[in-house]
Structures are given as C-alpha cells and as structure tokens.
C-alpha cells in the first residue's frame, strides 16, 4: 500500500455541469472500449497477412485506487488513456462529484512492475491512494450494497461490520446515550460529515463515530453509511434465534444461542451464582461491579454474545466477541458448577469463527496469568498465539486463519443443530 498526495489546482470553484459530466464519461467509455476491443482494419485490408501474435501473458495484481481529477471534459478520458498505455485493466469505476473536482474510484488489474502512481499523475490525477484488492472486490457496487443491507436487516450486531466493509479500514465507535450526553443532541438527524470523520445518531441512542484518517470520506460514502444506519433504526432490535444443542463430554447437554439485552436478568442471576474468584478472573476489578458491565456487553451494537443455557432456562456461561475500535476482543465466563466440561472452549471456538467471518485479522483476550482455563482454551484453538504479561495481567493475541482449527471430541462436545 502507498499514499501519494499532490496539491489540487487552486482557483474559483465552478458549479457541477451535468452535460460536461456526461461528455467526460462518454470520452472515458470510448477510450476504455478502444483499449479493450481495439479497432482492427477489415480482413481484406490486411493483405491476408496472419494476425500478430498475442502479447505474452504477464503477472498482474488487483488494486483498489482512488484519485482526484478536475471536473471538466476530457479529464477522466486522459486518466484512462494514461492507464491504458501501461496496460492497466479497468475492472470497475465509480465517480464521486466534489464541486470543481471529482473523486474517481477504480478497481484495476495492474501488470507487475507498473508504477501506478506515475501513470495516474501523468493522467492528471492528484491526491492518489491505492491498496491491494482481492477477488471479493470484483462484486459490482449495487450488488455489494444490497448484500450489506441484507446483513444489516438480519442482525443488529452486523451494523458496525457492514460499515467497516463499506468504508474500508476505519475505526468505528459507539458512544451510549448516557456517555454521549449533550454530544448526541449536537449531531443532527441527518448526521455530520467532517472530512475524515462521520458522525451519525445511533438508533439505540448516543452517537456512532466513524474515523478514517488516511482517506477523506466522500458525500457518496456518507450517504450510503447513513442509509444503512437508517435501515437499522427502522427495523429495530433483532437477532438470529437459532440454537444448537451441545452434548457435554461428561454427560448432559446445554443449548448454545445468541444473547442480547433481553437476557440481562438471566445473566445477572448467573453472576450471583458465580464465586468471587470466577468474577474476579473475568472482570479484573471489584466483584461488586461485575453486573454493571452486562448491559454494555450484551448490546449487539458493541459485539456479539453467545450464551450456554440449560433446559430449565438458566444461563450458565457467556462468551463475548467485542468490537474494540479496529481491534476485536474475546471474553468468557462460565459458572463454577459448569467449569471444566468443555463449554468455554466451545464458546471460544464459535466466537473465533464469527471473527473470521467478519474478516478480523486477530482476536485478543485479557485475563490473569493464573487463569489456566482461559490460557488452555486459547491454546486449544490451534492458532498462532502471542503472549504479553504486565503486572499479572496477561494479553493473549491469536492470529486468525480462514478456517479455525476444528474442535475435537476430547476438548469439546457433540453438536446437534436446530
């Protein structure tokens, strides 16, 4: 990945001209089609000469690129021509009007060794940013937005994730209404766009803040993010209701399901049945404060929670996957009478699977060095681990792979899905 910043042209800011815009896009499309299909002469004008051999295939890579050009006829065509001269293949193009300028966003297939920034600069692009892409980026824009909207509609916990997928590498923070105070009222219903920061009213109260310091947001990105938040607000609280039955290695079974703030009373009751030592290992502070964190931990806005529940309806374990800015934390608590029966390891394995699906690169757990149960559960994942110890506090970071290690009968139980 690399960043190149050039100063934009100064001068008076003209109004956006739709006709000039149409002409500009037409020129770009013509240049693109010319490059992709060519204009070979008819066969009878070639003297029957055999066609020229195709150029040898060269190694290439996918790149996502964003650059700024003047909003005037021929500007986009000049940029496309500069890319074509270096055999850069334009796979998709989106434009974001910005008054006197336009931000153009490309998905490109670039031959190895190509100086992409030099090509863009030669074509008139400024404020250029680029990063490597993969095959997932080949989905066209409308299809991608529909997919993100469907994920948002299915599960309230998806909103921070779909915003991150929509806007790229960014930090998303949700500030509850009680903490936001007057700040929530300062954000108008339509939200605020401030260069590299987006602020929107959280449907649950408070403020959603999205920051991307390395690349300013465009009005188009702001409008898309606001539409997803509005969809979340209209649909209200929701969560997948499926559950699995986990048969424990020592006999008996519990069900594993998603949990949210509707389970607050049952989670508090579990806390009351836990020993002071169990609560201290989990929350690293005064035992009496443990239940104060539950409303935050169970909120789908801050992550996902799994609960292990008995047939009588008692919650005996909770596992949390928490969105901590651009980091992801995992945390577990298992009621004393249900410990060492594979429940914590099973919850942790499922939480890590959720993190992989959410494209998280790492997860970390904060515990005490003496908490051998949590250490064993993290080691049981079969993932590369990093350990950091400071004054008795242990932070274990797991580097995720596309397919986490499967649970074995010795470390977990058998699952029946319902």
From TrEMBL:
Q: Where does the record place the N-acetyltransferase domain? A: 254-403
Q: Which residues form the ACT domain?
A: 64-135
Q: Which domain of life is it from?
A: Bacteria
**Gene3D superfamilies given for it?**
3.30.70.260, 3.40.630.30
Which InterPro entries does this entry report, sorted A to Z? ACT-like_dom_sf (IPR045865), ACT_dom (IPR002912), Acyl_CoA_acyltransferase (IPR016181), GNAT_dom (IPR000182)
Q: Where is this region: Disordered?
A: 37-56
According to UniProt, the name of this protein is GNAT family N-acetyltransferase
Organism in which the protein naturally occurs: Streptomyces prasinosporus
């Amino acid at each position: 990945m690399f960043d190149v910043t050039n100063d934009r042209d100064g001068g008076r800011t003209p109004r956006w001209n739709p006709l000039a815009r149409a002409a500009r896009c037409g020129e770009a499309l013509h240049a693109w089609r010319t490059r992709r299909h060519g204009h070979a002469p008819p066969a009878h004008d070639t003297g029957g000469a055999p066609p020229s051999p195709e150029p040898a295939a060269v190694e290439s890579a996918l790149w996502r690129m964003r650059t700024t050009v003047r909003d005037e006829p021929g500007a986009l065509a000049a940029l496309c021509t500069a890319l074509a001269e270096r055999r850069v293949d334009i796979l998709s193009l989106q434009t974001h009007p910005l008054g006197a300028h336009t931000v153009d966003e490309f998905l490109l297939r670039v031959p190895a060794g190509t100086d992409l920034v030099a090509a863009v600069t030669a074509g008139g692009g400024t404020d250029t940013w680029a990063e490597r892409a993969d095959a997932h980026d080949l989905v066209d824009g409308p299809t991608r937005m529909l997919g993100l909207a469907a994920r948002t509609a299915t599960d309230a916990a998806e909103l921070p994730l779909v915003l991150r997928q929509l806007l790229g590498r960014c930090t998303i923070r949700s500030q509850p209404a009680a903490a936001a105070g007057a700040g929530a009222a300062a954000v108008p219903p339509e939200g605020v766009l401030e260069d590299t920061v987006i602020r929107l009213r959280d449907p649950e109260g408070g403020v959603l803040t999205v920051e991307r310091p390395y690349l300013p947001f465009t009005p188009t990105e702001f409008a898309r993010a606001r539409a997803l938040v509005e969809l979340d607000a209209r649909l209200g609280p929701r969560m997948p209701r499926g559950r699995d039955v986990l048969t424990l290695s020592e006999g008996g079974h519990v069900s594993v399901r998603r949990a949210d703030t509707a389970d607050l009373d049952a989670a508090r009751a579990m806390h009351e049945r836990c020993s002071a030592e169990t609560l201290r290992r989990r929350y690293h502070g005064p035992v009496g404060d443990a239940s104060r964190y539950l409303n935050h931990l169970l909120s789908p806005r801050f992550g996902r929670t799994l609960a292990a529940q008995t047939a009588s309806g008692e919650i005996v374990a909770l596992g949390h996957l928490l969105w901590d800015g651009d980091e992801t934390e995992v945390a577990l608590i298992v009621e004393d009478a249900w410990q060492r029966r594979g429940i914590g390891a099973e919850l942790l394995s499922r939480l890590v699977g959720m993190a992989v699906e959410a494209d998280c690169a790492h997860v970390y757990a904060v515990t005490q060095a003496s908490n051998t149960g949590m250490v064993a559960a993290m080691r049981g994942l079969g993932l590369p681990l990093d350990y950091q110890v400071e004054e008795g506090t242990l932070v274990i970071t797991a580097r995720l792979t596309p397919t986490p290690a499967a649970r074995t009968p010795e470390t977990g139980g058998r699952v029946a899905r319902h």
